[in-house]
């Protein structure tokens, strides 16, 4: 089964408006302990991939990464499974897994490469899997991989965070030592080259305290100043090495200063060729900045304190007024992209940046994110106890039983709902709270997996966990709340679940619903942003051909009940139809294979042709 195979393709994924890791704390689990079963390795799995990635010393080489591709067969022979227990010393998602080389496993057809290949450099604060906090990391990796397979030369520039697992970087070597400016000083900086998941990456490591700490975010340094430094250090590296990419693709506010630095400084020096594309992944993160802070990267901060540049409109007349790195990035970039057509429309209608986006609407695009179908592939996912695809779905039942057994849930044929999310207000916390109660009332099971960066939210969910555990003690509780981040467990939950809940108050794109469908799990979502572009209601007769989930509009408990009740009714009363829709959603092509072409169109619209 080719990873991009599938008969259904989401439409309406592109709009242009013309102007008229690691170690985790013990999870919070609800309920009593199950019987102890075997405690060995989680399962054996043979997943052979024949790939190689070669890094050329010449950064301008048109083909720096070479892919040797093998086919994927849907041959899921039965393997002996060592069933886990909640009393195991090592939780089943933390046990040793087979090595997984996530180099591109795609059909590379030279006849379908894009004409006029480009050199594209992504400048980002995150990259999956080595520096992933949220969907940003997934998007950067998936888009970079897809453009590589289309014949483009792609690099990612990333801070060398102290917390990055170095063993996941292939062929890591230091390639440049140079200095980059910050706050009146030139800071010694090393640039390293490596390959991550088949993608060339350039890591920047300053000699000061920036990017030190146990996590990607939340170190003891000033994050805003660290990313201001990083933005300039990327351009400084291009200048000292003579690197002239066609496109510099910057992501989020963390790289928002780079377009300002490029056009007002480095373009007047020797970096002449690049054009800048900015992707806004979430408009709620503005990169609030003082004029003095911006000046520390070498720009004259007060010059940007105007409405037509980087002034935060909300602070007009305040003392002091503030700047927004994201707004500056919008103004100074050659093209601006957000991550779904519906979110584009929403951002033009609400929020303080709407007026800026309207002024620049002729360069503003809405392109639906894809998912990395190499990383998220149930037919080759080494984290699963059994693999499966749309033609052979028996492995999904095994995954469900495996997770139920490992978490001490009864292995009943009842709907299993999962919610895999960061526990922040945007994600509809009150609706997640309510869903836990409603799923139990309906006789189903529910697992919540996610971290809460706000200690108050974490405390609330810890309290909920204890409350439910106390109320259902020794009665086979049906709820698990796991306040952790685990990439391994998230793969298992997507594969095990019957339904995934995404009740976001707003959602620029959302990847959970697309990943879930890839694993045959039916989404229950609120109609907003990218959720509205990818999930179509089962009971909507006008969209019956697209029907792939359950959708609700309101932010109240009654609206959520309506969707949950209908989903449970379909599952219990129409099992054959449920199996059909499970197979159908697995074949929907939400891959970057489709979406990357739309980004290439944007790149071509702004690149300098020579």
Mean pLDDT across residues = 87
The main pleated sheet reads as: 10 strands, mixed
* Apparent shape: globular
- Approximately what portion of the residues adopt beta-strand conformation? 15-25%
Binned, the helix content reads 25-40%
| Count of helix runs | 16
Overall radius of gyration: 24 Å
Q: Unreliable runs, pLDDT <50, ≥5 residues?
A: 1-73
Q: Give the neighbour order of strands across the main sheet.
A: 2-13-12-9-8-3-4-7-6-5
Structural class: alpha/beta
Tell me the span between the first and last alpha carbons: 40 Å
How many beta-strand segments?
20
Quick description:
Helix content is 30%, strand content 17%. The protein is an alpha/beta fold.
Keywords:
610 residues, alpha/beta, ten-stranded mixed sheet, 20 strands, 17% strand, globular, disordered N terminus
Overview of this protein structure:
There is one protein chain. By secondary structure, the chain is of the alpha/beta class. It is 30% helix and 17% strand. It contains 16 helices and 20 strands. It has helices at 135-149, 223-241, 257-264, 291-295, 325-332, 341-349, 354-359, 394-406, 429-441, 455-471, 487-496, 512-518, 529-534, 557-573, 575-586, 592-606; strands at residues 8-9, 14-16, 119-123, 153-159, 170-182, 185-196, 199-206, 247-251, 275-280, 288-289, 323-324, 335-338, 364-367, 416-420, 445-449, 479-482, 499-502, 522-526, 550-552, 588-589. The strands form 4 sheets. Strands 2-13-12-9-8-3-4-7-6-5 form a 10-stranded mixed beta sheet, sandwiched between helices. Strands 16-15-14-17-18-19 form a 6-stranded parallel beta sheet, sandwiched between helices. A hairpin with a 2-residue loop joins strand 5 and strand 6 (185-196). Helix 2 crosses helix 3. The longest helix is centred in the middle third of the chain and has 19 residues, at 223-241. The chain is globular and about 65 Å long. The two termini are 40 Å apart. Mean pLDDT is 87; it is low at 1-73.
């Amino acid at each position: 089964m080719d990873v991009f195979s599938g008969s259904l393709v989401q439409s309406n994924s592109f709009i242009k408006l013309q102007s008229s890791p690691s170690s985790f704390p013990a999870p919070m689990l609800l309920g009593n302990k199950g019987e102890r079963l075997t405690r060995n390795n989680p399962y054996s799995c043979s997943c052979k991939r024949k790939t190689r990635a070669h890094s050329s010393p010449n950064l301008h080489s048109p083909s720096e990464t070479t892919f040797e591709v093998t086919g994927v067969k849907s041959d899921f022979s039965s393997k002996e499974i060592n069933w886990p227990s909640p009393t195991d010393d090592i939780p089943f998602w933390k046990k040793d897994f087979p090595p997984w080389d996530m180099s591109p496993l795609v059909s590379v057809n030279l006849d379908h490469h894009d004409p006029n290949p480009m050199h594209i450099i992504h400048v980002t604060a995150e990259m999956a899997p080595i520096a992933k906090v949220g969907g940003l990391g997934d998007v950067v990796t998936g888009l970079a991989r897809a453009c590589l397979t289309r014949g483009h030369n792609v690099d990612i520039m990333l801070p060398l965070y102290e917390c990055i697992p170095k063993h996941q970087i292939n062929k890591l070597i230091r390639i440049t030592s140079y200095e980059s400016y910050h706050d009146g000083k030139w800071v010694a900086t090393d640039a390293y080259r490596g390959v991550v998941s088949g993608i060339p990456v350039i890591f920047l490591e300053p000699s000061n305290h920036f990017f030190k700490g146990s996590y990607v975010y939340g170190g003891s340094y000033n994050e805003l100043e660290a990313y201001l430094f990083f933005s300039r250090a990327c351009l400084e590296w291009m200048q000292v090495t003579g690197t002239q990419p066609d496109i510099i693709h910057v992501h989020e506010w963390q790289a928002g200063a780079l377009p300002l630095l490029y056009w007002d400084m480095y373009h007047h020096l020797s970096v002449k060729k690049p054009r800048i594309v900015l992707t806004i992944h979430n408009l709620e993160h503005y990169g609030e900045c003082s004029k003095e802070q911006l000046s520390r990267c070498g720009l004259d901060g007060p010059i940007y304190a105007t409405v037509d540049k980087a002034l935060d409109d909300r602070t007009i007349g305040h003392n002091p007024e503030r700047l927004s790195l994201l707004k500056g990035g919008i103004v100074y970039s050659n093209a601006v992209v957000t991550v779904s057509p519906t979110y584009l429309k929403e951002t033009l209608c609400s929020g303080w940046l709407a007026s800026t986006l309207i002024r620049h609407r002729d360069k503003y695009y809405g392109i639906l994110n894809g998912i990395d179908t190499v990383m998220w592939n149930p037919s080759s996912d080494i984290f699963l106890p059994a693999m499966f695809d749309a033609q052979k779905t028996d492995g999904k039942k095994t995954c469900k039983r495996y997770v139920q057994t490992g978490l001490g849930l009864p292995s009943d044929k009842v709907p299993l709902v999962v919610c895999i999310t960061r526990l922040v207000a945007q994600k509809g916390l009150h609706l997640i709270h309510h869903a836990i109660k409603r799923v139990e009332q309906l006789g189903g099971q529910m697992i919540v997996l996610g971290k809460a960066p706000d200690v108050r939210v974490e405390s609330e969910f810890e309290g909920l966990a204890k409350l439910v555990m106390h109320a259902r003690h020794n009665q086979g509780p049906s709820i698990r709340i796991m306040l952790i981040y685990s990439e391994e467990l998230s793969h298992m939950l997507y594969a095990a679940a019957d339904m995934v809940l995404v009740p976001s108050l707003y959602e620029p794109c959302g990847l959970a619903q697309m990943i879930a469908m890839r694993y045959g799990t039916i989404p229950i979502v609120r109609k907003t942003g990218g959720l509205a572009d990818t999930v179509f209601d089962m009971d909507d007769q006008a969209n019956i051909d697209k029907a792939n989930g359950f959708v609700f509009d309101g932010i109240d408990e009654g609206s959520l009940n309506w969707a949950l009740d209908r989903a449970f009714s379909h599952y219990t009363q129409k099992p054959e139809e449920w199996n059909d829709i499970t197979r159908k959603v697995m074949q929907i092509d939400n891959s970057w294979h489709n979406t990357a072409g739309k980004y290439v169109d944007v790149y071509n619209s702004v690149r300098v042709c020579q």
